[in-house]
User: Fold 3-hydroxybutyrate dehydrogenase from Massilia psychrophila.
Amino acid sequence: MKSSMLSGKTALVTGSTSGIGLGIARSLAEQGANIIFNGFGDAQMIDKLYNDIGVEFGVGTAYHNADMSKPADIEAMMGFAFEKFGGVDVLVNNAGIQHVANIEDFPADKWDAIIAINLTSAFHTSRLALPGMKRNNWGRIINLASVHGLVGSAQKSAYVAAKHGLVGFTKVTALETAHTGVTCNAICPGWVLTPLVQKQVDDRAAREGISNEAAKKALLAEKQPSGEFVTPEELGALAVFFCSPAGDQVRGVAWNMDGGWAAQ
Assistant:
């Protein structure tokens, strides 16, 4: 059932055409927020996606195709948000990419791209959103880090570095806004069955000659004690909590939703 907690507010969710970003965008729309989508994919599919969500929840929706590795694109997207809805009240920095390799084999261009999209883009969106949030004395910045913002895994040097950086950036943003109605927190998911993770499952199934289901179980068994994937809907509910009055004094946390991964 649609709530009105975020009625009149606008949320910008980067990387929201699928996976975690889409789950969070839906949860915020359900609370009455207008949504600006961003991400890659088939243009017709994206049109249908944001129009359908607008109709389903009775909110305003729009889409911007900013490449999150390009500061000029990010500036254009933030400008678009101001033109369309008068600003951004809830900023969800979710866009991310992954590459897996040992450090000595890691392509330098992949390192640069992962740092740019997974970390630097959050700086650019935040610096452009904060003046308006501070003026309104209300805002929520939610950074999608990862359990890899808290612990490491072999062969993920750039991703782990970016996500640890994002947790640190979250803390500084929270401290700088501590005397305002603006909060900043990070969500640190464990394994979520996003297209990014499905690709790792597919690769593993092919490499080990096992079924997709067996590859999923093996992946979870290594890291996630619950043996279950975290869902985009669960992450969306946590984002909604951060936006609620109950979240007013939740500031600078890195909140892991990881089936027990970081508890080990």
